[in-house]
Design brief:
33% of the residues lie in helices and 28% in strands. Strands 1-2-6-3-7-19-8-18 form an 8-stranded mixed sheet, sandwiched between helices. Strands 10, 12, 14, 15 and 16 form a 5-stranded antiparallel sheet that branches. The protein has a two-stranded antiparallel sheet with strand order 4-5. The protein is elongated. The N and C termini lie close together (6 Å). The relative contact order is 0.20.
Length: 418
Amino acid sequence: MFSPHGAHANELDTLKQAKNINLKVVEWRRHLHENPELSNREFETAKYITKHLKSLGLDVQTEVAHTGVVATLVGGKPGPVVALRADMDALPVKERTPVPFASKAISEYNGEQVPVMHACGHDTHVAMLMGVAEILTDMQSELSGTVKFIFQPAEEGAPAGEEGGAELMVKEGVMKGVDVVFGLHIWAGVEVGTIGVKAQGIMAGVDDMKITVEGKQAHGSRPWASIDPIVTAAQIVNGLQTVVSRHMELTKDPAVVTIGAIHGGVRSNIIPEKLEMLGTVRTFTEADKAKTRKLITEKAELIGQSMGAKVKVEIPYSTSYPVTYNNEKLTEQMMPTLKSVAENLIIVEPVTGAEDFSFFAKEVPGLYFFLGGKPKGKPASEVASHHTPDFYIDESGMKYGVQAMTQLTLDYMNSYKK
C-alpha cells in the first residue's frame, strides 16, 4: 500500500544525475534509432540493452516474451518492488527525417521486405530507462526496495500467429511480487519540458473486430436474384455509427467505432456471395467495452437478418487491450513528484490510441504519463504525427524522462508503508 503524502527525495540530486548521464542517453538513443527492429524481432536491441545492464552488475533475464529483457536491482534497505517499463519495437515505416542517424534498415513484415523506423519514440524510451538503471544502480545502498527494469518487445503488436508484448510478459510472471509500475510515452506534439497525465483512463482500451456478411451471388444486372452482401455491409456501417452517437453518454463515456477495411467482390458486374469488414473499437471503461461489443453484434446481426443475409461478428477478432488506467490514489500521490520534474505539468484529455502497458497496470497500481518531445517554439501544425516517415523527437526532452522515472521510484519507495 502507499500513503498519499510521503517524503520526496532530493529533486536537485536526480536532476543533476539526469543531466550528467544525458550524453550517454543521447548516444544510446541514436544507436537504437539507426538500428530499429520490428515486434518480436528485437534481437540486437535486446543484446545492446543486456550488455549495458550486465555492465552495471544487475541480475538480468533475457528472452522474456521472446526478446524481452528484465533486470532486477535489490536495494540496500527493505521496501516495495517498483517496476519501470520501456517498449523496444519499431515500425514498418520508411524514414524521411534529415538526421544523420536516420534508419536505413530493412526487415521482413507480413512476408515482404520493408523499411523499418522508430516512428513512435520507443528508442527514446529504451535509452531513458537504460539511464535510469545506471543512476539507481549507483544509489543501490540507499534504495529502500527493489527495482525491476522491464524492456518490453512487441508493443505495436506481435506478428500474425504469434503472442507477444506486455500480455505475454504478464503470462510469464514478470509482474509477480511487483507493488507498482511506472511507464511513459514521449509525445511529438507536446513541448519539451512538459509532462501530461491524468487519473483513471488515460488511453483507450481496444478491440478489433471482423464482420463477415454472407449473401447470395448473382449477375450485377439482376440484383433481385441476389442477397447483396455489399448493400448489407453499407447498412451495417451506417448502423454502427449509432452505437456511439445514440447509446453512449458522450460527456462521460467517450468511444470510437471505426470500420477500416471492406473486402469483397472481384468484378463490376458480379454481386459477390461474401464480404468481410475489419474495424476497431475504442472505449475507456470495461463496462463500455462490454456494452459496445453487445451493441455492435446485435445491430450487425439484425441488419443482416432484415436483408436476408447471414452475419457473423467476431469481437475481439485478434487484438484486445484493456484501458490504460492510472490508479487514482497512486496518481494523487505522485503528482508532486511529476510537478517537481516538469517545467509544465498538464492534465491531458483521454487519448483514443491504445497501449499494452495496460496489461501491467491491470496487475498492480500503475501510473503512465506523456513526456514532451516537441522542440520549443515549433508550431503544433508543423509537427509530424507518430507512425509517420517525418516523425521527429527533440532529444533535449529525454533528461526530463530520466529524472521523472528516477524520482518516481525514489519518492514511492520513501513514502511506502506496509
